[in-house]
Amino acid sequence: MKTLAEFVKQRRKEVNLTQEEFAERAGVALTVVRKIEQGKTNMNLDRVNQVLAMFGHELAPVNSRELQTNK
C-alpha cells in the first residue's frame, strides 16, 4: 500500500505539475504540498483533503474497531 506522500507525489507528477502549480490549483499553501510529500505527520486534515480532492479522494478518521471487524 502506498503512503499518502507517495500517492500525492506520484499523482502530481502524472499530471505534470510542479509543487507550486499544484498548490495553487488545490487552493492550499505550497508548504502544505511540501509537508504532505515529505510525509510529515502533523497535518491539518482539512488541508490534506483539499489536496486529495484534486484526485477525487478523501481521508477520514477510522475507528480501530472498524478496521478489525473488516478483516
Automatic annotation (TrEMBL):
Instruction: Note the Gene3D superfamilies from the entry.
Output: lambda repressor-like DNA-binding domains
Which Pfam family, just one, is annotated for this protein? HTH_3
Please list the residue ranges annotated as the HTH cro/C1-type domain.
8-62
Please report the name of this protein according to its UniProt entry. Helix-turn-helix transcriptional regulator
Its source organism is: Carboxylicivirga marina
